Amino acid sequence: MSLDPNPGPSGAGGAVDPSGAGGGVGGAAGGAGAPGAAGPSAAVGMPATKTARQARIAALLGSRPVRSQAELAALLAEDGLVVGQATLSRDLVEMRAVRVRGTTGGLVYAVPSEGGDRSPAPAMPQELLDARLARLCGELLVTAEASANIVVLRTPPGAANFLALAIDHSVMPSLLGTIAGDDTVMLITRDPQGGAELAERFLQLAADPGASSDKL
C-alpha cells in the first residue's frame, strides 16, 4: 500500500493542514530509528482502539520529529499498530495535528500542547526534556522513598502534576507507569525490586541537575 499523500503548502514558519502529509515511504527510513521516549512493544497490552492509537500517535509526535504520514505509519507498525492511510489521516485531523517548523527547519507534525498554551509545538530535543526534569527535581522534590518496585516522590502542595508530566516526557526504560496526586507522585518500575535504585536516581537528579535521566 502506498503512503504518499499530496503535500500541502509549506510557508516559512507556518502550519500546514495535516491532510497534506508530504513525503513518501522513503521518508520513513530516515526517522523510524530516531531517539525518543521508549515505545511499547507488541507484547505490551495495548488495545486496538482509537483512543489507544491516538495516545500513541501523540506520544510519538511529542518525542521525535515526524515528517510525514508514511514515517508515522512506520513508527506505529514498529509498535504492532498497522494503520491505513485513511485512518491515520482521520486521526491527525481529530487530534488537530498540523505541520510546523521543527528545530532543524524542516516541517514536522505537532499536536496541541498541554497546559495553558495549546499551540501546536514540535517535539523538544530529548536533552532539553532531561534538563527540564532535572531542574524540576531540584525545585520540587521533597523526598523519594521506595518499597519493592514502587517509588513515592513528595512535592510541595499542588506541584506533583508538574513533576509527573516531566517524568512522562523523559526516557526512562525502567519505568512502567506514573500516577500523580496533589503532592505525591507514585512510580512503578519494571524490575520487581527496582524501586530503591530509581528513588536514588531521582535524589541524584535533585542534587545534581546536570545528571542524565537516561539511566533511570
What this model shows, in words?
The protein has seven helices and six strands, in the order ααααββαββαββα. By secondary structure, it is an alpha+beta fold. It has two domains: 1-123, Arc Repressor Mutant, subunit A (Orthogonal Bundle); 126-215, Gyrase A, domain 2. The strands form two sheets. A four-stranded antiparallel β-sheet has the order 3-4-6-5, with helices on one face. It has a two-stranded antiparallel sheet with strand order 1-2. Helix 5 (126-140) packs antiparallel against helix 6 and helix 5 crosses helix 7. The longest helix is centred in the middle third of the chain and has 15 residues, at 126-140.
In short:
By secondary structure, the protein is α+β, with helices and mostly antiparallel strands. The strands form two sheets. The protein has a four-stranded antiparallel β-sheet, covered by helices on one side. The chain has a two-stranded antiparallel sheet with strand order 1-2.
Q: Could you name the ranges where pLDDT drops below 50 across 5 or more consecutive residues?
A: 1-43
* CATH homologous superfamily label of the largest domain: Winged helix-like DNA-binding domain superfamily/Winged helix DNA-binding domain
- The shape is globular
Whole-number tally of structural domains: 2
- Mind telling me the CATH class of the largest domain? Mainly Alpha
Query: What Rg is obtained from the alpha carbons, in whole angstroms?
Result: 18 Å
- The total strand number stands at 6
CATH topology value of the largest domain: Arc Repressor Mutant, subunit A
Q: Please trace the helix and strand order, writing H or E for each element.
A: HHHHEEHEEHEEH
Number of helical runs?
7
Mean pLDDT, as a whole number?
77
Structural class: alpha+beta
Architecture (CATH level 2) name of the largest domain = Orthogonal Bundle
Distance between the termini: 39 Å
Strand order of the largest sheet: 3-4-6-5
Largest sheet: 4 strands, antiparallel
Name the beta content range.
5-15%
Approximate helicity band: 25-40%
